[in-house]
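// run 5 | inverse folding | seed 20
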């Protein structure tokens, strides 16, 4: 049986990378799979170094949409656009040929399916980092609804009592 953990939307950007590291250490007999946003990853990317040193076999899907999508839906502004990194290149640099690591970048469904097949078969004993390129506006109906409600609450005047 699988265990699922999720941070509250907007609750703590950066939580996912460290949480992935911790879960993988706590459940070494299982393979941790994480979906991490690009903005969140930029906060704590260095944890990948520890993942490699500890020989974790985690699969990380880095969701690259060029910004803080949740933040955009709550309160849009230029501060929600982040500098795009070469994420696979960064992980390759951190890997530096030490330990087992495989990275790839995908843009289409067929590429994603192939990457998942590789990560779960020939690279099953590696840390696998799959960067998924998404359109900046690719978001769920639920996130749009959440953002609208949260923005309305966030934008009302403070209670002065």
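// decoded
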């Amino acid at each position: 049986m699988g265990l699922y953990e999720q941070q509250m939307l907007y609750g703590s950007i950066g939580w996912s990378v460290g949480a992935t590291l911790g879960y993988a250490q706590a459940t070494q007999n299982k393979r941790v799979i994480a979906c991490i946003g690009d903005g969140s990853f930029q906060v704590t990317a260095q944890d990948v170094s520890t993942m490699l040193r500890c020989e974790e076999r985690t699969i990380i899907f880095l969701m690259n949409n060029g910004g803080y999508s949740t933040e955009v839906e709550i309160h849009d502004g230029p501060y929600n656009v982040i500098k795009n990194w070469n994420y696979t290149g960064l992980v390759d640099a951190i890997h530096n040929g030490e330990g087992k690591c495989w990275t790839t970048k995908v843009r289409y469904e067929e590429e994603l399916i192939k990457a998942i097949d590789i990560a779960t078969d020939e690279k099953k004993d590696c840390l696998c980092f799959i960067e998924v390129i998404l359109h900046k506006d690719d978001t769920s109906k639920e996130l749009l609804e959440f953002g609208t409600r949260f923005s309305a609450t966030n934008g009302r005047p403070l209670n002065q009592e």
